[in-house]
Amino acid sequence: MLKYFFKRLLVMIPMMLAISLLVFGALELTPGDPLTAQFPPDQLVGMSQEDLDALREAVGLNDPMLVRYFRWLIAFFTGDMGYSIQTGTPISQVISYLLPQTVILAAAALLISTIFGLIFGIIAATKHNTIWDYLASVIGVIGISMPEFFIGIVAILIFAINLGWLPAQGRGSADATFIQNLRYLILPASSLGLSLAAALTRYTRNSMMDVMNQDYVKTARAKGLSESRVFFKHVFRNALMPISVLIFLRLPMLIGGSVVIEQVFGYAGIGNRLLTAINSSDYQLVLTIILMLSFVALLASLLIDLVTALLDPRVRL
Amino acid sequence: MSENKKKIVKSSLAKENFYKLLHNRLAVLGFMLMFVILMACILAPLLTPHSPTDLNLRHMGKPPGGEHPFGTDKLGRDVFARVLYGGRISIAIGLSGALGGMILGVIIGSFCGYYGGWLDAIFVKIAELVSVFPQLLLVMVMRVILGEGIKNLIIIFVFTGWIATFRLVRGRFFSLREESFVEACRAFGIRSSSIVFRHILPNCLGPVIVQLTLNTAGFILQEAALSFIGMGVPSGTPTWGNTINAAKELLNITNYPWLWVAPGLAIAFFVLGVNFFGDGLRDVLDPKQQ
């Protein structure tokens, strides 16, 4: 298992490098003086052109691109990510404050959609060709077809405004505990997770149906095992394989989708900040956030990969 | 779409598939949904006298009814006209992005699948990289580089949308290139390009077409999401996403529901239609994938 973990980790490193190279290239192509991104704005105010040029030479902005890339990468990993041009705050501070919020949102969406997707999928498979099965598949297709922000708006209208059960906007107060602020998470996380839940329902159903027709399930029944034992030990565990692959594939979409959902719910996460940064051409901040989010996506997919390997020893080979 | 079908009906397998599709109720329903919305968008000038961009300051924020069946927005633009004309652009973006991605995926996939080797290894790595990168973020990176605009959005969709088709085609080629009919072609001295495109490729087209429908649906959703957050089509152009944009303000959600309900439902119904139709197509063209 440990060997497999390191193998996956080794595969990830070139990917991270490739992504960072892409982001660095984008940073090079965007307009703006790189100096302003490296120093707090008040430090640069009042400096003459000569001083600026000297500073540029001193920090190595005139070095070859590859040298600058590696310097930038090392700085990134040591937490020195430069400054936001717009507000002058260190980017690392912005990220450490807002990124956890987005990760919580995406994780909550993943949790909700996995639970509901599995439950509905199992119901549809065990009661297949009944009204429940049809209902699950129709709801599944509808869930895939609606834009997630539209679901979010409808959810605000119904649950926040008309019924008044949950707050429509925001992230709660900073003084309150996590549990107290949980109310603010329910609507955004469910809207974000709905399409994944719908896809999971479909996948779980089909995957369960496939496994239930296998010979070894018939054998297990023939041995006289109880129905619940057949179900959990033989059917469910084997059906989980393709399901975890689906989660693996959809994870990046979940992280991208959180950017949109944060807009709908005015949720103070990194995605919201990303959009204001794009609108104010704060490219250093934009690309650092994008790099950070793609690393999160990579790490999350590594995690799911490991869970899959735990479930199915064949993967480790 | 209908012309395409006429051509296929000539061969008997295709005829059989066509009847199978006709008997799939969800697929027919999906096709009708798609067709009705598409036709309404194409025939927009016949259905509404209003322009999607003309401001009418005397009719600002009017609820649905009378002259304006879906009401007007806060600048007095007719929402029905915006949904119809916006559909033209949204569907065109989704379809051309998916078509471009399909062509790119088919070309790269068939060469990689047929020849294998280092070229194949490189593209597999690129595909893996693009698929772990959250697509929306990739779109943003490219938007930062390329700038705003419909053309750029389509380019971005093409460059992010070839992966699934590439994987499909490449996989099929790997097994098909070992088949005896390919060997026979080689023995006859047929050129490789002809073997790839005329002999092997037609055998992979079923799943590719299914993927095309899925991608079209996906890109229409993405265009809407991107325009909604102000990252997609420039805000002056009417698209489904730009029209829903009004719902970003909490007040509009309750006080002006017609601003966002109609375009939202238009997207949902169209994408639903495409998905139902795509599912039906899959059952017929690619029974193994169910």
Largest β sheet strand count, sense and barrel closure of chain A:
none
Residue-averaged pLDDT of chain B, rounded? 81
According to DSSP, the number of beta strands of chain B is: 0
**What proportion strand of chain B?**
under 5%
Unreliable stretches of chain B, pLDDT < 50, 5 or more residues? none
Helix vs. strand class of chain B: mainly alpha
| Number of discrete helical segments of chain B | 15
Total separate domains of chain B:
1
**Over the alpha carbons, how many angstroms does the gyration radius of chain A reach?**
24 Å
Low-confidence stretches of chain A: none
The fourth-level CATH homologous superfamily of chain B is: MetI-like
Query: How helix-rich are the residues of chain A, as a percent range?
Result: over 70%
The DSSP helix count of chain A reads 14
Radius of gyration of chain B, rounded? 22 Å
CATH names the topology of chain B as MetI-like fold
Instruction: Let me know the number of strands of chain A.
Output: 0
Q: Any idea what the shape of chain B is?
A: elongated
* Helix and strand pattern of chain A: HHHHHHHHHHHHHH
Helix content of chain B: over 70%
List the helices and strands and how they pair.
The complex is a heterodimer of chains A (317) and B (290).
Chain A (H helix, E strand, L loop, with lengths): L1 H28 L4 H5 L2 H4 L4 H10 L6 H13 L13 H36 L4 H15 L2 H15 L15 H4 L1 H30 L2 H8 L4 H39 L4 H10 L3 H29 L6
Helix pairs in contact in A: 1-14, 6-7, 6-10, 6-12, 6-14, 7-10, 8-10, 8-12, 10-12, 11-12, 12-13, 12-14, 13-14
Chain B lengths: L1 H7 L3 H12 L1 H18 L1 H4 L31 H37 L1 H16 L2 H12 L3 H12 L1 H14 L3 H8 L4 H9 L4 H24 L11 H5 L5 H6 L2 H28 L5
